[in-house]
């Protein structure tokens, strides 16, 4: 996912913040958001989950999801 997230960052700039969390080192986060598969992508807006999906998602699809949420 790292190259895809870098590509996405190039497409959207500073509109959003992209964070990667190592669920093995942060099991509390994994439990809090019920992450069962890696990668799991979660889009938050004002602290609320707006979208989530497990598995690889292409940058163009992620951009569409973000555009719809903004």
From TrEMBL:
<feature type="domain" description="Thioredoxin">
    <location>
        <begin position="1"/>
        <end position="67"/>
    </location>
</feature>
<dbReference type="GO" id="GO:0015035">
    <property type="term" value="F:protein-disulfide reductase activity"/>
</dbReference>
<dbReference type="InterPro" id="IPR013766">
    <property type="entry name" value="Thioredoxin_domain"/>
</dbReference>
<dbReference type="GO" id="GO:0045454">
    <property type="term" value="P:cell redox homeostasis"/>
</dbReference>
<dbReference type="InterPro" id="IPR036249">
    <property type="entry name" value="Thioredoxin-like_sf"/>
</dbReference>
<protein>
    <recommendedName>
        <fullName>Thioredoxin domain-containing protein</fullName>
    </recommendedName>
</protein>
<dbReference type="Pfam" id="PF00085">
    <property type="entry name" value="Thioredoxin"/>
</dbReference>
<dbReference type="GO" id="GO:0005829">
    <property type="term" value="C:cytosol"/>
</dbReference>
């Amino acid at each position: 996912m790292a190259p895809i997230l870098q590509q996405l960052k190039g497409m959207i700039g500073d509109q959003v913040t992209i964070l990667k969390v190592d669920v093995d080192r942060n099991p509390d986060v994994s439990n809090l958001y019920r992450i069962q598969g890696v990668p799991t992508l979660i889009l938050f807006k004002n602290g609320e989950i707006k979208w989530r999906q497990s598995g690889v998602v292409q940058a163009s699809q992620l951009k569409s999801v973000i555009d719809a949420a903004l």
